[in-house]
């Protein structure tokens, strides 16, 4: 027993200088920065200014990903429903699918035909009532920027248009995406001269829905069908049963991986809205999702530590504590592989605002395993990764 105690004491004496060196390097690099590193057993290895609440920016997406895995599960798939009435009018009811992109529509159109036949449709009615028309996400502004895209129950290509304009001539910037009349008019009105991506107008959310209808019709035509008559917005008639339910080809795990790597605000809030609607029933609403999030956070004693007002981090009214986020990272650890990795094998998510630079994830260390870390700075984007390097090498 005395020999065992001697070995343990020797190991502790060796570890103490290493920890001290890591803390000193962190303090030298960013004396005013918030830095927390916690090992898998919950022991705090570095804790500098860790009691300060901070604006998470896009590291909030880690919390949304954890909530989504808890409520929806990794194999969950978003659905879009199609109906056909006796007059051969096609009804499309959106289900909030965040990845209803051109490549998905190319898969969807032939499958729709397999269920409905290739006889021309006499019109199309688009039903986006799964989300209230007045839904607004805090922090999203009425701009043309892609990161300010409005959340809509039926939208395509992240509710954006990617095009090239030369004078009044507009063409698609993507080989896989046909140009449509509405895309041309919107890009002429608000797009840059040259190549760019714009969000669709927020003043009239029906523009987004109508663009989705035009693009769906274009892919139906590419698959050999046609849509005659008007493309309009409305509701699916009562009693009409779906002829085809399209299940998103990507499961939730893959969507979350792409969301975390690409840091897409639109995807994050589409997922966040589904969290509430799935548990409390449709239509989706921000209030329902915040209620479900609050319940789950309370179960883990995180009510005061994680304060969310939306799911992407675009709002400065989100407030986290470092210890609260470290606990979420511990809960999300089985899914750490969904995050971007460094050459050393660490997993991370960045967040960036004017005056806010955040970084959080799992640092791969030699002696302490995968350490949960949280970094928040007032500036210096590259400095975040120098601090991560100090954690990787010092612990």
Structural commentary:
The protein is α+β, with helices and mostly antiparallel strands and 395 residues long. The chain contains ten helices and 16 strands. The strands form four sheets. Strands 2-1-16-15-14-13 form a six-stranded antiparallel sheet, with helices on both faces.
* Secondary structure category: alpha+beta
Percentage of residues in strands: 15-25%
The amount of helix comes to: 25-40%
Shape, please?
Answer: elongated
State the oligomer.
single chain
DSSP helical segment count = 10
Task: Tell me the number of strands.
Answer: 16
Give the termini distance in whole angstroms. 28 Å
User: What series of H and E elements makes up the topology?
Assistant: HEEHEEHEEEHEHEEHHHEEHEEEEH
Biggest β-sheet: strands ordered side by side in the sheet: 2-1-16-15-14-13
Sheet having the most strands = 6 strands, antiparallel
Give the low-confidence spans: 12-16
What is the mean predicted local confidence, pLDDT? 93
What is shown here, in short?
The chain has 395 residues and is of the alpha+beta class. It has helices at 2-29, 60-71, 102-116, 181-190, 206-222, 252-262, 265-280, 286-299, 322-332, 381-394, and strands at residues 34-38, 44-48, 79-84, 89-93, 123-127, 160-166, 169-172, 194-199, 231-233, 244-247, 306-307, 319-320, 340-341, 347-353, 356-364, 370-377.
């Amino acid at each position: 027993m005395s020999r065992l105690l001697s070995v343990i004491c020797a190991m502790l004496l060796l570890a103490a200088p290493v920890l001290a060196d890591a803390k000193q390097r962190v303090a030298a690099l960013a004396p005013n920065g918030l830095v927390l590193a916690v090992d898998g057993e919950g022991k705090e290895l570095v804790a500098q200014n860790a009691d300060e609440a901070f604006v998470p920016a896009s590291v909030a997406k880690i919390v949304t990903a954890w909530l989504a895995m808890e409520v929806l599960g990794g194999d969950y798939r978003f659905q879009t429903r199609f109906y056909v009435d006796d007059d051969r009018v096609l009804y499309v009811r959106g289900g909030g699918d965040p990845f209803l992109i051109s490549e998905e529509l190319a898969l969807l159109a032939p499958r729709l035909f397999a269920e409905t036949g290739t006889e021309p449709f006499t019109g199309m009615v688009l039903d986006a009532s799964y989300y209230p028309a007045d839904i607004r996400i805090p922090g999203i502004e009425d701009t043309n920027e892609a990161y300010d895209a409005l959340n809509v129950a039926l939208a395509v290509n992240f509710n954006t248009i990617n095009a090239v304009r030369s004078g009044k001539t507009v063409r698609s910037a993507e080989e896989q995406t046909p140009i449509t009349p509405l895309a041309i008019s919107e890009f002429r009105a608000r797009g840059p001269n040259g190549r760019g991506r714009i969000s669709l107008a927020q003043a009239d959310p029906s523009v987004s829905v109508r663009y989705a209808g035009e693009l769906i019709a274009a892919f139906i035509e590419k698959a050999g069908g046609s849509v005659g008559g008007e493309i309009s917005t409305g509701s699916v008639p009562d009693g009409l049963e779906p002829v085809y339910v399209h299940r998103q080809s990507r499961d939730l795990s893959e969507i979350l991986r792409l969301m975390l790597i690409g840091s897409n605000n639109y995807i994050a809030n589409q997922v966040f809205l589904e969290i509430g609607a799935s548990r409390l029933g449709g239509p989706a609403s921000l209030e329902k999702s915040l209620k479900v999030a609050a319940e789950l956070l309370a179960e883990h004693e995180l009510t005061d530590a994680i304060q969310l007002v939306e799911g992407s981090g675009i709002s400065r009214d989100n407030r986290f504590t470092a210890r609260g986020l470290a606990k979420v990272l511990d809960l999300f650890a089985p899914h750490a592989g969904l995050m971007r990795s460094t050459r050393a094998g660490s997993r991370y998510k960045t967040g960036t605002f004017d005056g806010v630079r955040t970084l959080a994830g799992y640092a791969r260390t030699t002696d302490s395993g995968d350490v949960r870390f949280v970094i928040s700075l007032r500036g210096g984007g590259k400095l975040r990764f120098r601090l991560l390097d100090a954690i990787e090498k010092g612990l």
